[in-house]
Specification:
The chain is an alpha/beta fold. It is 41% helix and 21% strand. It is built from 15 helices and 19 strands. A nine-stranded mixed beta sheet has the order 9-10-8-7-6-5-4-1-13. β5, α5 and β6 form a beta-alpha-beta unit. It is globular. The protein starts with 7 loop residues before the first helix and ends with a helix. The protein binds iron/sulfur cluster. The site of iron/sulfur cluster has 11 residues, from loops.
């Protein structure tokens, strides 16, 4: 098996907090100026334009979890009280009905993703109710893709059979790490037997794609322990693997203060964890899709990548390209292609808005032409590893994007000229940094910071 290596100087240089670019502009640049009325008007226009031709995508955030993982950065509510399910589903149903009044045609549903939180916190009966609510007045697209995030400890056969009957064929299990010591410190004890059982049950129920989420950079992880985890994972042959970098942000995720920072691997150790994981995956038949995703060659994600049909939205990489994503539930994000909106992040505020009969929009963003074009450049890089520039952007590219690209090219990570940019083999390790060269919000901020420093210096 070929050993993967990246120069430590490059690791140090590009070890910066860079967005995942599931949206552009990224969420910190959105604001609360987008009114609910403007959002509704934009939604109605885009829906009319896109629904019949491409269908729509729906993401539903199901926020409850029974216990708290100490690495968690998600919007969740910890409770053992399952009576919260009904109130929440009633609110999501009302929210869907608010969107339905804006639709002048029958919605054609092409993609549903249930994320969380822990979607399998909800009983099979309640999940069936939720899905029937959406589907009873909609048409399901012939090439639909329905998927769910499941917890290996509480995804039952009944969950899987219910979801299969509703058209679900993909499940993603949060595996994270299989080392007992790491599991203890992250407060997520799920023995390999549970993961194995959940995987077998999914396959027996008829699911054709099982994804495992793994994380590198967790407290107490070592190269040897990650090797053990990956070897156990490979034996179960998940069709896809997302191998995420742990983001340590204790100032926003207070739960991350529950372990000792000294137990976290350092930056270089962390990339060694990644390289070991990637080496094992690629040596065992997995292909690199981009941004920490891997897939076996029979999986649709790999086939879409080969055919240049890979897309990226808030749910990560996808083979579907609907152009319109409705996010239902607390903190969910919707994407109209030319506008984004995020729902209220606290359950209290979400319920209050829905009870008033209003969409629970907290903040959003209307994209201008420049945003749409640069969003496409970033998407192309993330999905295809290359993009072609439009001549009308040359002046902006020269001012803001070529200076960071020059650096990246000098480090052997990209090749570019005035017409295009292509990632090199090593560039794939720094794909987010390369995307950030086209993030005009970051680059303009950087530019004004540099000018300020310069004017202060003189
Ligand atoms: S990591 Fe997932 S299961 Fe754990 S607390 Fe966060 S949302 Fe819940």
């Amino acid at each position: 098996m070929e050993k993967l290596q990246i120069h430590p100087l490059l690791i140090r240089k590009y070890n910066q907090p860079v967005p995942r670019y599931t949206s552009y502009p990224t969420v910190p640049f959105w604001d609360s100026k987008l009114s609910v009325e403007k959002w509704q008007e934009s939604f109605a226009g885009q829906f009319n334009l896109l629904n019949a031709a491409d269908g729509i995508s729906i993401y539903i955030h199901l926020p409850f979890c029974e216990s708290l993982c100490t690495y968690c950065g998600c919007n969740k509510k910890i409770t053992q009280n399952h009576s919260v399910e009904e109130q929440y589903l009633a609110a999501v149903e009302k929210e869907w009905k608010l969107y339905r009044t804006l639709m002048k045609q029958t919605p054609v549903i092409r993609e549903i993703h249930l994320g969380g939180g822990t979607p399998t916190f909800f009983s099979p009966k309640n999940l069936r109710y939720l899905l029937n609510t959406l589907l009873k007045t909609s048409v399901v697209h012939p090439h639909h893709e329905f998927s769910i995030e499941g917890h290996p400890n509480n995804t039952t056969k009944e969950h899987l059979e219910t979801l299969y009957a509703m058209g679900f064929r993909r499940i993603s299990y949060g595996v994270q790490d299989l080392d007992p010591e790491v599991q203890k410190v992250i407060n997520r004890v799920q023995p390999i037997e549970n993961v194995k059982k959940a995987t077998e049950n999914a396959r027996e129920a008829g699911f054709t794609s099982v994804n495992f989420d793994l994380i590198y950079g967790l407290p107490l992880q070592k190269v040897q322990s990650i090797e053990n985890t990956i070897r156990q994972v490979i034996a179960l042959k998940p069709d896809r693997i997302a191998f995420y970098s742990y983001a340590h942000v204790p100032w926003t995720s207070r739960v991350q203060r529950l372990f000792h920072e000294a137990d976290l691997p350092g930056a270089e150790e962390k990339i060694q964890l990644y390289l070991k994981g990637k080496e094992l995956l690629m040596g065992n038949g997995y292909f690199d899709i981009g941004m920490d995703h891997f897939a076996l060659p029979h999986d649709d994600l790999y086939i879409a990548k080969q055919n240049g049909k890979l897309h990226r939205n808030f749910m990560g990489y996808t083979t579907q390209n609907t152009g319109l994503l409705i996010g239902l539930g607390v903190s969910s994000i919707s994407d109209l292609g030319m506008a984004f909106a995020q729902n209220e992040k606290s359950l209290h505020d979400y319920y209050a808005a829905i009870d008033e009969g209003k969409l629970a929009i907290k903040r959003g963003y209307l994209l201008n032409e420049e945003d749409i074009a640069f969003r496409q450049y970033i998407k192309d890089i993330a999905c295809k590893g290359a993009t072609t520039f439009r001549p009308q952007h040359l002046a902006i590219l020269e001012e803001f994007c070529f200076p960071p690209l020059k650096q990246l090219a000098a480090d052997g990570l990209v090749e570019y000229d005035i017409k295009q940019v292509t990632l090199t083999e090593d560039g794939h390790y720094f794909i987010r940094n390369i995307c950030s060269a086209f993030d005009l919000y970051l680059q303009r901020d950087q530019f004004s910071l540099n000018s300020e420093t310069f004017s202060k210096a003189i």
